[in-house]
């Protein structure tokens, strides 16, 4: 029978639209004023911390709407902005420097909706306000550091093998190793090729009686060095961004050498830049065993030593002399020993390995401490207008030296979570390569709100005009197209809310406005084809069938080409361009469904299989 959908297809249409509406629903509930609490320097927010904060706020007369602890972050929702500020101050005073306390706006989505994955769309900087940085990593500096490390490595390796050389130096072409005779050159070439695997390429560049090898990084190793430099810098910057207390920061790579940093809600560009450039470092000190800890706490610290505290609050006295700094750490990964006990595997560069070897051989059986040092924003300014930073020092590990250590060693005596945190702290101490800000934008919150209002007005007026035109021009069929258009917008919002990484930007709203016009294009083509079939003398049922059937290929071709263009925009674009491309692609997919399948289901339900002499079209 013409123009009849089977029951399963009707149910499918209803189900898909219902799912879109369900996941669009969280956007109607607005946001709560909230305070976000995150542990720093490896400290975790626990259920005990949550209870402490809830009791504290209740005691201060601040009503807590809801308190959620998830992934080590605590989000405390309060009634209004005044209570939010009071709650932040009370929590910050109670918890101290080991926690970051920040203001936030949290979605007011009901728990039952959250339990099935319901959440509102995330807003981009141009709608929410904040700071955008595009940072470029100096890969030449990263390569230079690695080549300098290799220079030291080659020297040590040839000394160990008793190969005589006259010099090892970096040049514009790579690392040049010079020899006095051919025999040592050949011996060094065979040995270094075996010792350095596929990392380095060695070429004989002997000229006359000047015997020399030229070493350069292989393409694979060069790519690995660049990847590690970018990845390490992203990790470091992400940890520094956490100090700003930003609710939903974006730190992601762009291309091979650039990093995008977006900080919603941050308006002070100078402060953001200073925090991103703030330093954190690691130092290794020997523990002063001769010191009495209680005397040190009372103020009687031996000369040449200093009193510090461990993460647990336990005091410990260390010698002031720095045995090794974190500048020499090249890698830090959590691992397990042969008994499945957590540990952190540390890798040092050649210079650091030599220093550490000499230090540890003379201190076997003695305890050594790892001191973590960072500079944290105090929220105050110095007289010259710069941000006032507070130096925080904390002993994160004390271990006994069991044997002479070299470039690679492990730190033991940690729990699994402590080993993960320590590895992260060691890696995030310093940028592996310098970064420069090549693009900077600041969006004010009032401008963001104005953008939202302007975008919504454009969408509403566009929809009103389209809805009126369709009803006037196509009558009952125009009303069906309007229902499909409303369903289309609901599905776009629902899908944007379902995708974890999707962010709605101002160009994204433009994409939705564009979709409003494009969504009815399909219906216009179908309806005009139905009119042509009716004028040609076809019956109503045949005209409907031919209209949908023959217009399908035209609609598909037009939408596929537009979709491919949007896909290219998403692949090569950045930030706002991606936002436009995402909403456009989603809008194309949903408009295809609503214009062809959705309206067909309604038309079939009203006119399909019936004796109809005239259509309201």
TrEMBL record:
<dbReference type="InterPro" id="IPR054384">
    <property type="entry name" value="SecDF_P1_head"/>
</dbReference>
<dbReference type="InterPro" id="IPR027398">
    <property type="entry name" value="SecD-TM"/>
</dbReference>
<keyword id="KW-1133">Transmembrane helix</keyword>
<comment type="function">
    <text>Part of the Sec protein translocase complex. Interacts with the SecYEG preprotein conducting channel. SecDF uses the proton motive force (PMF) to complete protein translocation after the ATP-dependent function of SecA.</text>
</comment>
<comment type="similarity">
    <text>Belongs to the SecD/SecF family. SecD subfamily.</text>
</comment>
<feature type="domain" description="Protein translocase subunit SecDF P1">
    <location>
        <begin position="231"/>
        <end position="289"/>
    </location>
</feature>
<feature type="transmembrane region" description="Helical">
    <location>
        <begin position="548"/>
        <end position="572"/>
    </location>
</feature>
<dbReference type="InterPro" id="IPR001036">
    <property type="entry name" value="Acrflvin-R"/>
</dbReference>
<dbReference type="InterPro" id="IPR055344">
    <property type="entry name" value="SecD_SecF_C_bact"/>
</dbReference>
<keyword id="KW-0472">Membrane</keyword>
<protein>
    <recommendedName>
        <fullName>Protein translocase subunit SecD</fullName>
    </recommendedName>
</protein>
<keyword id="KW-1003">Cell membrane</keyword>
<feature type="transmembrane region" description="Helical">
    <location>
        <begin position="458"/>
        <end position="476"/>
    </location>
</feature>
<dbReference type="Pfam" id="PF22599">
    <property type="entry name" value="SecDF_P1_head"/>
</dbReference>
<feature type="domain" description="SecDF P1 head subdomain">
    <location>
        <begin position="307"/>
        <end position="433"/>
    </location>
</feature>
<dbReference type="InterPro" id="IPR048634">
    <property type="entry name" value="SecD_SecF_C"/>
</dbReference>
<dbReference type="Pfam" id="PF13721">
    <property type="entry name" value="SecD-TM1"/>
</dbReference>
<dbReference type="InterPro" id="IPR048631">
    <property type="entry name" value="SecD_1st"/>
</dbReference>
<keyword id="KW-0813">Transport</keyword>
<feature type="domain" description="Protein export membrane protein SecD/SecF C-terminal">
    <location>
        <begin position="436"/>
        <end position="602"/>
    </location>
</feature>
<dbReference type="Pfam" id="PF02355">
    <property type="entry name" value="SecD_SecF_C"/>
</dbReference>
<feature type="transmembrane region" description="Helical">
    <location>
        <begin position="509"/>
        <end position="527"/>
    </location>
</feature>
<comment type="subunit">
    <text>Forms a complex with SecF. Part of the essential Sec protein translocation apparatus which comprises SecA, SecYEG and auxiliary proteins SecDF-YajC and YidC.</text>
</comment>
<dbReference type="Pfam" id="PF21760">
    <property type="entry name" value="SecD_1st"/>
</dbReference>
<dbReference type="Pfam" id="PF07549">
    <property type="entry name" value="Sec_GG"/>
</dbReference>
<feature type="transmembrane region" description="Helical">
    <location>
        <begin position="483"/>
        <end position="503"/>
    </location>
</feature>
<feature type="domain" description="SecD export protein N-terminal TM">
    <location>
        <begin position="2"/>
        <end position="103"/>
    </location>
</feature>
<dbReference type="InterPro" id="IPR022646">
    <property type="entry name" value="SecD/SecF_CS"/>
</dbReference>
<keyword id="KW-0653">Protein transport</keyword>
<dbReference type="InterPro" id="IPR022813">
    <property type="entry name" value="SecD/SecF_arch_bac"/>
</dbReference>
<dbReference type="InterPro" id="IPR005791">
    <property type="entry name" value="SecD"/>
</dbReference>
<keyword id="KW-0812">Transmembrane</keyword>
<feature type="transmembrane region" description="Helical">
    <location>
        <begin position="584"/>
        <end position="607"/>
    </location>
</feature>
<keyword id="KW-0811">Translocation</keyword>
